[in-house]
Amino acid sequence: MNRSQAFSLGLRSVMPILLGVAPFGVIYGVVALQSGIQPLAAMAMSSIVFAGSAQFLLAQLVAAGAPLLLSAGAVSLVNLRHALYSASVAPMLAHLPRRWKILLAYLLTDEAYAAAIPHLMAVKPNSPQSTHAHWILFGSGFGLWAGWQVATLAGVLAGAQLPSNLGLEFALPLTFIAIVVPMIESRALLASALVAAAAAVALAALPYKMGLFLAALAGLAVGTALTARRR
Questions:
Q1: Beta-carbon neighbour count of residue 81 at 10 Å?
Q2: Closest CA to 35 of 179, 200, 212, 162
């Protein structure tokens, strides 16, 4: 397997997932504009931050006028799961130069990881294929990144034609529900989701969307405790 074959494999693997991700990119572009984010800033967020759930959360926090420090903390908390992805692929990428590690870290998302990891795990260590295995992750990450930019642009263009008082706040919770529900595969995850949801409702009156931040911490605490107890 050479570079082009590995890149093509990663690209093909992410295409089915991209069909499901694209609508969320469009919704993000619309929601960002409805939240008061300028079109250029909305596009820059997709190309620089490149994290769908974090972008939705940040748009909501901007709309609420949340302080910068709180927004940064909430986005960082949402993206902590990427550290787990990095840890699992780190042994396969240890031989790469720093520039490659930085690029792949930037492109590493839930969907790109899910598309690439089965193929990466199938590559035997120290085999000829392992030399170009990172191109699989690059292909899936690049495919998702390019699709996300196009979807965001479509959402920004559509959002610019909509009245500012349309009220699309419902899109954010619906998006997170669609993302989270398929991932609930154990009692610990179910308990985390229920506790976080209950806390978010109970603390909804707190200013600057602090309730979302505290609800996320509560869900993490419950999930961690139940997982540790089970072990």
A1: 12
A2: 162
Question: Residue 183 and residue 179: Cα distance in Å, rounded?
Answer: 7
Render each residue's pLDDT in the chain as its tens digit; 231 residues.
Answer: 788 999 999 999 999 888 878 888 888 888 888 888 899 999 999 998 898 888 888 887 888 787 888 788 878 877 877 887 888 888 888 889 999 999 999 999 888 888 888 888 887 776 766 788 899 999 999 999 999 999 999 989 987 776 655 555 565 566 567 656 776 878 888 998 899 899 989 998 887 667 877 887 888 889 888 888 876
Joined tokens for residue 60: 């909501």
* CB-CB contact of 128 with 31 (8 Å): no
C-alpha–C-alpha distance, residues 218 and 87, integer Å: 24
Which residues, 6 or more positions from 20, have their beta carbon under 8 angstroms from its beta carbon?
none
How many whole angstroms separate alpha carbon 52 and alpha carbon 58? 10
